[in-house]
Write a structure and sequence with these properties.
Domain ABC transporter: 6-238
Strand order of the largest sheet: 6-7-8-3-9-10
Shape: globular
Oligomer: single chain
GO cellular component, one term: plasma membrane
Number of helices: 7
Bound molecules: adenosine-5'-diphosphate, magnesium ion
Pfam families: ABC_tran
Protein name: ATP-binding cassette domain-containing protein
InterPro entries: AAA+_ATPase, ABC_transporter-like_ATP-bd, ABC_transporter-like_CS, ABC_transpr_LolD-like, MacB-like_ATP-bd, P-loop_NTPase
CATH superfamily: P-loop containing nucleotide triphosphate hydrolases
Helix content: 25-40%
């Protein structure tokens, strides 16, 4: 069995709200994801999925608990080290795409490579290859406003792949798309999982899409209330 790439124990997250008060959103989450696994996280709005995703993606730190990301205890890292790990190991995909406006698809995809120190020509070449991979090569010069929702999401997935991260984190990536377009985006995730061995954590409201993953983790009110195998779990143990 492959080693865990995401290993969380007792994750608690509290947010300060106003005068000295705090809101506890996650109440002690344990979550282990193996390298190359495709996991869905499901749960009602407000249950803490995005808060958890931000911690998995090292965009935020837990208030309590331990998180070991690909063998590194993130609690021991300074902010700068944490950003570097995030930049190299994690690709993010969001419901609302979060592309840089008035900037071409090509430059959007090249941007994370710039932060990672990849030089100009190599950056452009790889950005073009990634756009080809998501079948957006003929839209390289288009700004996000000139693209459809599905096209924007494909560019965003190409961008998430820029630094060849081990983990793709997708927070309701099909939530703003019609079901046929969402289907194409989901197929792309399946392909990246199958062909490139990416570890994928997908937050979704769609029971159908969740059911295609290898494991489905249900979150309710900041707690994991269920874990089950999905249709994509060929021989994976829960
Ligand atoms: P989900 O993604 O499952 O819809 P979220 O993780 O976005 O849920 O939010 C869970 C709860 O945490 C909500 O009640 C939300 O208002 C609260 N929350 C999220 N982020 C913050 C924050 N930065 N400060 C205060 N409360 C927050
Ligand atoms: Mg959310």
């Amino acid at each position: 069995m492959d080693a865990p790439i995401i290993d969380m124990h007792g994750i608690v997250k509290r947010f300060p709200i106003g005068t000295g008060e705090e809101l506890e959103v996650l109440h002690g989450i344990d979550l282990t994801v193996r390298k190359g696994e495709f996991v869905a996280i499901v749960g009602a709005s407000g249950s803490g999925k995005s808060t958890l995703m931000n911690i998995i993606g090292a965009l935020d730190r837990p208030t309590e608990g331990t998180y070991v990301l690909d063998g590194v205890d993130v609690g021991t890292l300074r902010d700068k080290q944490l950003s570097r790990i995030r930049c190299r190991k994690i690709g993010f995909v969001f419901q609302t795409f979060n592309l840089v406006p008035r900037t071409s698809a090509l430059k959007n995809v090249a941007l994370p490579m710039m932060y990672n120190g990849v030089r100009g020509t190599a950056r452009t070449q790889r950005a073009r290859a990634l756009l080809d991979m998501v079948e957006m090569g003929d839209r390289a010069g288009h700004a996000p406003s000139q693209l459809s929702g599905g096209q924007k999401q494909r560019v965003a997935i190409a961008r998430a792949m820029a630094n060849d991260p081990a983990i793709l984190l997708a927070d309701e990536p099909t939530g703003a798309l019609d079901s046929a377009t969402g289907r194409l985006v989901m197929d792309l995730f399946h392909r990246l999982h199958r062909e490139q061995g990416k570890t994928i954590v997908l937050i979704t409201h769609s029971p159908e899409l969740a059911g295609e993953c290898q494991r489905i983790v249900t979150i309710k009110d900041g707690r994991v209330t269920g874990v089950r195998r999905g249709g994509g779990a060929a021989d994976a143990a829960v």
